[in-house]
Each structure stands twice: as structure tokens, then as C-alpha cells.
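Milestone 3.1: sequence recovery, worked example.
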């Protein structure tokens, strides 16, 4: 990513790692690794792609922060993380991104996890 974004990138990266601390251990490990891989993969992209990349991660950080706050206030003790990914958004993904998303979903839904993924008629990512 271009040099002028370095402080913004670093701050966002640290914020997401900090937000991952509220996740169950398996999800935290998965999220941290994915974050590291994605930021490394986008290190040398052009300015436009860097902007979109940072915007998407900022949205993720905001949603995760909101969900963490909701989970703290939830008296049932059952944490819920994730959000609906509309088909229109999936249509904008490159084949490589779809493959990454499938790998991430498979990893996140492996049996014997310390968290449960709620079943829904709509996919949650």
C-alpha cells in the first residue's frame, strides 16, 4: 500500500487485533492469521485498491466492535459474531477472493470448535 497510508494501516491493523481479543480462542486465532495474510497480500496494491481494502477492514472493525458491545450486554452469555454477506457483494469478488472466502468458511465451520455458528437460510460470513 502506498506510503501515505502507513499510519492509517498500522492503526487499523492494531485495532482489529485488539478487537479479536473478544473472540473465542479458535476464532481469534483464525481471525488474526487471516488479518496478517490479507494485510501482507495487499502491501503493494495500487491506491484505489488500497482505499477499498482499508474501507472494508474499517467496516469490519466497526461491526466487530458493535457485536462485542452487544455480546457484553447480552445476558444469555451466548456470543454471536458475523454478518450477512449479500449476493450482490459476492458478485463483485474475484475468483481468488471467492476461494479465500470458501477456505475461511470451511476453517470456521470445522467440528469441535469452541463456538457455534448459527444455522440460517442465508450464509453468514
Amino acid at each position: 500500500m502506498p506510503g501515505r497510508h502507513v499510519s492509517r494501516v498500522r492503526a487499523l491493523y492494531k485495532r482489529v487485533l485488539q478487537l479479536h481479543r473478544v473472540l473465542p480462542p479458535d476464532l481469534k486465532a483464525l481471525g488474526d492469521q487471516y488479518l496478517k495474510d490479507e494485510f501482507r497480500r495487499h502491501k503493494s496494491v495500487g491506491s484505489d485498491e488500497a482505499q477499498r481494502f482499508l474501507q472494508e477492514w474499517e467496516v469490519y472493525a466497526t461491526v466487530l466492535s458493535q457485536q462485542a458491545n452487544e455480546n457484553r450486554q447480552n445476558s444469555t452469555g451466548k456470543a454471536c459474531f458475523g454478518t450477512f454477506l449479500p449476493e450482490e457483494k459476492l458478485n463483485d469478488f474475484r475468483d481468488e477472493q471467492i476461494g479465500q472466502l470458501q477456505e475461511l468458511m470451511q476453517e470456521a465451520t470445522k467440528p469441535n470448535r469452541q463456538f457455534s455458528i448459527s444455522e440460517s437460510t442465508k450464509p453468514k460470513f
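The radius of gyration is 15 Å. The CA atoms of residues 9 and 54 lie 7 Å apart.
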